[in-house]
Write a structure and sequence with these properties.
alpha+beta, 7-stranded mixed beta sheet, globular
């Protein structure tokens, strides 16, 4: 049987287009129509909910709305050990209550938590793809209720398969030599697709021998550290020192990935930073916002490496998750090597948290020795 086609191409491509549009609508604070077989529901970002729009949705809901929250946020509300998303019924859509459940530091559960459905899980995935808080208002509707409305409609399967489909569409769209300070023989290779809302970039330093294991670093974008030299993390140090090390060695590849804030986006990263300034640990701050330890995916990074002709890697990372992701994608990790930053009074707790709570291989004694003043 031939695969069905739409005006724009294969049906799978049409699904990608629908999710792309759904992400745009969701980020703009407009409802998206989710379809699960014969079930229809409007999904709206809780953090972007407009009072006038919510009032109209409340009339549609007739007491049947709910808010879906991630497992991480539910744990913060008092559901200890919670590992799955859940919902709170909304007999009426009270935005103050929704804001409290979704965001306030001192909020606690004010009603029983019901299990999330597949549709609820898809709504949370849409929120994550849109880089907004994982808290979604859901209103079940009939086809007659929304007939004629300019809504983007998307199937649940299209949302759940979006990340993998995006990775499959990765392609090189531009490449050029870009000499860098300390690494004059460097090429930037730009990929369209993958994950995030921007293009992905591979920085090829020197002339790595592709018949041998290639030094590779998967580096998630960090605006504050990479560009402005923030003292709250070690990202900028890791970025620049990796490139310099590759230039002085046999070359290598650094993938610069659009995964700001461990995949949570720059706005949520700033929210977490504010919480950290009030004394919260980096991972606790993310959990308050509804995020687990790490939202990043690295399968598309392996696809980038394969398109560059890399099949064996020396992983330059402190994060075992990255090593596992590269291996799971079918590449051979011949070895791994630590990447040291510089500790300071602002980031030492952050570094210790990555070691103790996320399993990063960080030798704090070695870092402190590196930071000690030289005679």
């Amino acid at each position: 049987m031939p695969e069905s086609r739409s005006l724009l191409g294969l049906s799978s491509e049409a699904d990608l287009v629908k999710v792309d549009r759904a992400i745009s609508e969701f980020r703009a604070g407009r409802p998206v129509l989710l379809r699960d077989d014969g079930t229809l529901a409007l999904a709206l970002s809780a953090e972007l909910a407009d009072p006038d729009l919510v009032q109209r949705l409340d009339k549609l809901a007739s007491g049947g709305a709910h808010v879906v929250l991630s497992a991480a946020r539910l744990r913060r509300l008092g559901a200890k050990g919670r590992t799955e998303a859940g919902i709170f019924a909304l007999p009426r859509i009270d935005l103050d209550r929704v804001e409290s459940l979704a965001l306030k530091l001192d909020a606690r559960m004010d009603a029983p938590v019901a299990p999330a459905s597949a549709l609820d899980d898809a709504a949370l995935e849409l929120a994550r793809l849109s880089l907004v808080l994982p808290a979604v208002l859901i209103v079940y509707v009939s086809a007659e209720q929304v007939a004629g409305e300019p809504l983007v409609e998307v199937e649940l399967a299209a949302i759940s398969g979006y990340r993998a489909a995006q990775a499959a569409t990765l392609k090189i769209v531009g490449r050029a030599p870009v000499p860098l300070e300390g690494a004059p023989e460097t090429e930037f290779v730009v990929f369209r697709g993958g994950e995030g809302l921007r293009d992905q970039v591979a920085i090829v330093v020197g002339k790595p021998d592709l018949t041998q294991p290639v030094p590779v670093r998967l580096h998630s974008a960090c605006l504050t550290g990479d560009l402005f030299g923030s003292l709250k993390c070690d990202c900028g140090d890791q970025l620049r020192e990796t490139v310099h090390w590759m230039a002085q060695s046999e070359g290598g590849v650094l993938l610069y990935l659009d995964q700001e804030g461990r995949g949570n986006g720059i706005s949520n990263k700033m929210r977490a930073y504010k919480l950290q300034s009030q004394g919260w640990d980096t991972y606790d701050a993310d959990e308050v916002l509804g995020f687990d330890l790490d939202q990043r995916h690295f399968d598309f990074a392996a696809t980038m490496l394969k398109q560059l002709g890399v099949s064996q890697v020396i992983a330059l990372t402190n994060n075992p998750q990255k090593i596992g992701a590269i291996e799971a994608a079918g590449l051979d990790v011949a070895a791994s090597q630590r990447v040291l930053g510089r500790p300071n009074a602002h980031n030492v707790r952050y570094l210790a948290s990555k070691r103790d709570r996320a399993g990063h291989i960080i030798d704090m004694d070695a870092l402190m020795a590196r930071a000690a003043p030289k005679d």
